[in-house]
Design brief:
Blueprint (H helix, E strand, L loop, with lengths): L3 H5 L8 H9 L4 H19 L5 E6 L5 H7 L4 H7 L9 H12 L8 E7 L2 H10 L4 E4 L9 H7 L4 E4 L7 H11 L6 E5 L7 H9 L2 E5 L5 E5 L3 H13 L4 H4 E2 L2 E4 L1 E6 H6 L3 H4 L7
Parallel strand pairs: 1-2, 1-4, 2-3, 4-5
Antiparallel strand pairs: 5-10, 6-10, 7-9, 8-9
Length: 283
């Protein structure tokens, strides 16, 4: 995918293969890292939150790759290969073949209940039909308040994960989520891009009494830079924020940290070292 417009054209189709092929071409890695953290820490988080399984809201989750990784014995490489563009059309036969493929890999233990939240109705519907999501909400929290159904659901959510939303959508959306979620105070798992100003989002977290921590022992490869034009634009934006572009972009990849935002009371009750030891290490 060469630019944001190219990505948007793939994002809400009945056929999921152009979207996943675009992710594969970019070697997009963040979902694997975020889901590894949750799979590794699920037991401790569930015990702390007094629930037999974690209720996860996949923010801007699209077709449900996070739900696929959390609920199935699979990885991103297999998912990308599964949805490679090898057929001219995506009809009922391919759809059923995909359902059988993932059903055969479903984890016997139900560690998570995952719902999707996105503006892409067709993508969400696919994730529900495929079993990646147990439910979904096609809503825009940048422009609208949560619907009554979403507001009710947010009061039960344990973890909100974000693995690819546009940076400017995060402050208003997370403010809406945290303002609605009530005393359960969900955790928020995300990664901050170096070319995006994280000041407004940090202000939202501070307003709600949240602290942001590092989950990873070191930065990891987020995705490959798409083109020389993107490299020039991103280097310019990163430098304008007072950051070193050479430190954030190496070997034609973004390098980012996985972050966890939690209410400050939780930080003291369950330290990060109780979840991931010395930090989540990435291959």
């Amino acid at each position: 995918m060469r630019n944001r417009k190219d990505f948007a054209a793939r994002y809400n189709l009945a056929d999921p293969r152009p979207y996943f092929t675009g992710l594969r071409d970019a070697d997009y890695r963040l979902p694997a890292v975020a889901c590894r953290f949750l799979l590794q820490s699920a037991a401790q988080i569930a015990q702390h939150r007094h629930t037999p399984r974690l209720r996860v809201l996949d923010f801007a989750g699209g077709y449900g790759v996070n739900g696929a990784l959390l609920a199935h014995k699979t990885d991103l490489a297999e998912i990308y290969d599964r949805f490679a563009l090898t057929e001219s059309g995506y009809g009922p036969d391919l759809f059923q073949a995909d359902r059988r493929h993932f059903a055969a890999r479903r984890r016997p233990e139900a560690l998570f209940e995952v719902h999707g939240l996105d503006i892409a109705e067709q993508a969400l519907a696919y994730g529900v039909e495929m079993g990646f999501y147990q439910g979904a909400f096609a809503e825009n929290l940048v422009s609208d308040a949560p619907s009554p159904a979403l507001a009710s659901h947010l009061k039960e959510v344990d973890v909100v994960m974000e693995t690819g939303a546009l940076g400017e959508t995060l402050p208003p959306s997370f403010h809406a989520i945290l303002s609605t979620s009530g005393p359960k105070r969900p955790w928020i798992l995300l990664a901050s891009r170096p070319d995006v100003d994280d000041g407004p989002l940090n202000q939202v977290f501070q307003r709600h009494g949240y602290t942001v921590e590092l989950c990873t022992a070191a930065p990891f490869r987020y995705r490959r830079l798409a083109s020389a034009q993107e490299r020039t634009e991103i280097f310019r934006n990163t430098a304008a924020l007072g950051r070193d572009p050479e430190a954030a972009f190496r070997d034609d990849y973004f390098w980012v940290d996985l972050l966890l935002a939690r209410h400050q009371d939780t930080v003291h009750a369950l330290p990060m070292t109780d979840l991931v030891g010395q930090g989540l290490r990435i291959d």
